[in-house]
Amino acid sequence: MALLTQAIKGTQDVLPADSHRWQYVEKKLLDTASLFGFKEMRTPVFEHTELFNRSVGDTTDVVQKEMYTFNDNGGRSISLRPEGTAGSVRAFLEHGLHNEALPQKISYVTSCYRYEKPQAGRLREFHQFGIECFGAPLATADAEVISVAALAFENLGIKNLRLEINSIGCPTCRAEYTKALKEYFASKQADLCETCRGRLDRNPMRILDCKSPICSAIAEEAPTVLDYICDDCRHHFEQVKAHLDVLGIEYTVNPKIVRGLDYYTRTVFEFISNDLGAQATLCGGGRYDGLIEQVGGQPTCALGFGMGLERLMMVMEAQGCSFPLPPVCDVYIAPMGEEAVLTASMLCRDLRAEGFSAQTDLAGRGLKAQMKFANKIGAVYTLVLGDEEIATGKAKLKRMADGEQIEVTLQGGLVEAVYDDLFADAFEDLNNAVENFGNKGEQ
Ligand code: HAM
């Protein structure tokens, strides 16, 4: 039975009591990105495996060990997306967005899949909010992308994050750096893990993010990329820093950040939180100026970031950030008798048409049990419909907070009464505010 009633390890359900929190966070993130001109894009959950091999990189942990890859019934190798960038680049090219006005700015909220060892903040199915900006070579774009994340955190009330930035250069200066890394790691070859020995020739930069304690200790002393970047890359990095300075976004340069995916060039960055334990990176991104060409397009500069939503929620909870209250039931109608059941359905329809949430009995319960249910769902008002109410066409709308009863006519009067009672105070406040504003204007 466990197979039927237990979710797969490393996955999480969002229950009805919590879904409004997710909706709130996702909307805030997409709305923040939209202030900068980013528009949402939705891509499939799976892609041809080759796309990830080419973009994320076939020597990365993500591709080598973590992808959910399978052959479909047509014999094609398919992978669940481990991240959002590769699919976005594929869609950008496939739909000719490179022919539209550049830069193209897209945002997304997607599920991602990585076969990692699950722990707090590390899941096998997780969710990312991300943005990608295609066709923007200037350092202004790097700073803008970072500002989207910074403003999103601010809008959600998240504090105490550390922004770390680095430049990992372009293919030209990377060649020099790779040579230096190869020489360094070759001298320690015997101590490296088997995977890293394999990486030595193909992609020595990947040794820098190996999780084995011995390889990490060796990597500590490795040459740092900032000592090898060319003049153009250095100038670009200086400009990114200058932009962040004028925008008032604090950062530290961490020459050890290389990121775990192969497509990055120049600027890379991470937002890190002390409230997350071992999985401290909340958001990671950077430039990937070579990727679009690598996937088959014209050379096009690009950059973006991905933010882990489960980690974001963890930080928000740890920091006591405020979330909106769950939606409530405005009116619960308790019918007693056959005709009342029909009238209740009709009244619920009328209330919903005006935007109020309304519920009625779906379980054939007695009055007492219905009232108990109305209490449990936090109904703001209840209305009992019995023979008398049906006969007179009048009923009492009960405000549950204080027991106050308002007499309403069933034909048209209910919606009006709910409207007046719910919004009377708000209208009064609004009227007072308008009056006060008017008075100030006259002074
Ligand atoms: P990434 O650093 O691999 O970058 O992932 C971005 C974020 O996703 C991480 O900082 C973390 O918050 C979250 N994340 C990653 N793996 C897991 C996991 N197993 N469980 C929970 N959360 C996780 C990328 O994915 C790039 N596509 C980002 C990017 C976009 N770069 C440029 N554009």
How do you describe this structure in short?
The chain is α+β, with helices and mostly antiparallel strands. 42% of the residues lie in helices and 20% in strands.
Q: Radius of gyration, rounded?
A: 29 Å
Second-tier CATH architecture of the largest domain: 2-Layer Sandwich
List cofactors, ions and other ligands. Answer: histidyl-adenosine monophosphate
Largest sheet: 8 strands, mixed
Low-confidence stretches: none
What does this protein structure show overall?
This protein has 443 residues and is α+β, with helices and mostly antiparallel strands. The chain has two domains: 16-170 and 229-318, BirA Bifunctional Protein, domain 2 (2-Layer Sandwich), CATH 3.30.930.10; 331-422, Anticodon-binding domain (Rossmann fold, 3-Layer(aba) Sandwich), CATH 3.40.50. It is built from 16 helices and 16 strands. The chain has helices at residues 2-5, 19-34, 49-57, 61-66, 85-94, 139-155, 171-186, 194-202, 213-220, 231-247, 291-294, 309-318, 338-353, 367-376, 387-392, 413-442, and strands at residues 39-40, 46-48, 69-71, 77-80, 104-113, 125-134, 161-167, 252-253, 265-273, 281-287, 302-308, 331-335, 358-360, 381-385, 394-399, 405-409. The strands form three sheets. It has an eight-stranded mixed beta sheet with strand order 1-5-6-11-10-9-7-8, with helices on both faces. Helix 6 packs parallel to helix 10. The longest helix is centred in the C-terminal third of the chain and has 30 residues, at 413-442. Bound molecules: histidyl-adenosine monophosphate. Histidyl-adenosine monophosphate is lined by residues 83-85, 114, 116, 121-123, 126, 128, 130, 132, 260-261, 281-286, 304-308, 310-311. Residues 83-85, 114, 116, 121-123, 126, 128, 130, 132, 260-261, 281-286, 304-308, 310-311 line the site of histidyl-adenosine monophosphate (HAM).
